[in-house]
Design a protein that fits this description.
177 residues, mainly alpha
Amino acid sequence: MFHQIKNLIPNFGPPNFPTSILSGCFFHLCQNIYLVVIHFGLKTLYDDNGDFAKQIRSLPALTLLPIPDVIPTFVEIKAQFQAESEHVLTYFEEYYIGGIQSHLSHPRKAAKYDILLWNEQSYIDAEIIQANAGVTKLRRKDQVRQETRILNILNEPTKTALEKVMALAQIISLKKS
């Protein structure tokens, strides 16, 4: 039965549904990264070391950058990461960025999830508007404050992409439900 379902998947792609838009989910990307942190035994370090946690949270913050800035900023982030986080970086690079190849003509292997799928930069305004519609009044004030901070960071013209990602990492939580 699994094989039959697997064979149906190509029938649900964009060629058969030309008006469909495929996009990833920021929440699930954060959860995937957090599960990798747990899998490699880094949960205690993540919980106890604020600098390490901020570095890990900088990975999902890449989703909010314009697509041309994602890979160069990832390379900058990677250079600053602690040695303990090597497994998390390898996972993120393989699944979301694309690994480095030895061939000069193709500098990166294809990522398992294309950047166009998980990059949320083009959806930021629409998602904020949509999220506000479903939030209770008590939570709306905090959510609006956080969204305003995100937009202010992203729209700051004097900050580099790396500075924006590190600022966003301050307000991203991998464990929120």
